[in-house]
Design brief:
237 residues; alpha/beta; four-stranded parallel beta sheet; 4 strands
């Protein structure tokens, strides 16, 4: 059975990791061992990648067949010094092209700076999300409305007033417009909970309670955040 470690950039990865595993099941993909590990900051990928590639897994007592470094691409220069940002005003196709070129440069950077052997480099893969984790939450407005409970109509009005309103966007346009939606979520949680949005709490709760258990919502998130599909492709069949 293939063994894979996904290296996440921060500590708040557990529910995203479980969502990824649920999406694999939705595709009826063959079983594999997929573990998650935090590197605790984008600057630590260079230091942690060699360790993850050589550390045996408990289940097999062998190093993983593949390590996949997964990061947001909202601040590319944090991953590759002097990397150009995503092109301003780009459409979905242009962002597709940009992120694939950037991923190639990031892998080259990791191999070079981590001083990986040819064998270790052959087991290293990278995948960048063109959006922040918060985009997953806005991608499914129905989940936010359910989470709002008795305040759902106030949240609905707030989401409808966003420019552009997330529910009105096609899947291709969503990834362009909602790459950094923290400000939108902040306004939502001031309505839901009378406080600011809290990363590591509200995102994990929404994924665990409202999105991951619901097949239709998982499908909606998958269609609007296509980098999840690319991640599944990187993990392999």
């Amino acid at each position: 059975m293939r063994t894979i470690v996904i290296a996440y950039e921060d500590d708040y990865y557990e529910e995203l990791h479980l969502l990824v595993k649920a999406l694999r099941q939705d595709r009826v993909l063959p079983g594999m061992i997929v573990e998650g590990r935090p590197v605790r900051g984008t600057g630590n990928f260079v230091h942690e990648t060699p360790r993850l590639l050589r550390t045996p897994l408990k289940q097999t007592k062998l190093p993983p067949d593949r390590v996949v470094c997964l990061a947001d691409a909202d601040r590319p220069q944090d991953l590759v010094p002097r990397a150009p940002p995503a092109p301003a005003g780009a459409d979905s196709a242009a962002l597709d092209q940009w992120v694939r070129v950037f991923e190639a440069s990031w892998k080259d950077h990791l191999v070079r700076e981590s001083k990986l052997s040819e064998e270790a480099a052959s087991r290293l893969y990278v995948c960048c999300m063109r959006w922040s984790k918060e985009s997953l939450l806005v991608a499914c407005p129905d989940a936010l409305l359910e989470h709002a409970g008795g305040r759902r109509e106030r949240v609905r009005a707030l989401l409808d007033a966003c420019v552009p309103a997330p529910a009105t966007l096609s899947a291709a346009d969503f990834v362009v417009s909602y790459r950094k939606p923290t400000e939108c979520l902040d306004r939502v949680f001031q309505v839901i909970a009378d406080r600011h949005y809290k990363k590591g709490r509200d995102d994990e709760d929404l994924l665990r309670l409202r999105i991951k258990p619901d097949a239709a919502r998982r499908a909606e998130v998958m269609s609007r955040c296509p980098d999840l599909g690319r991640l599944l492709d990187v993990l392999g069949p």
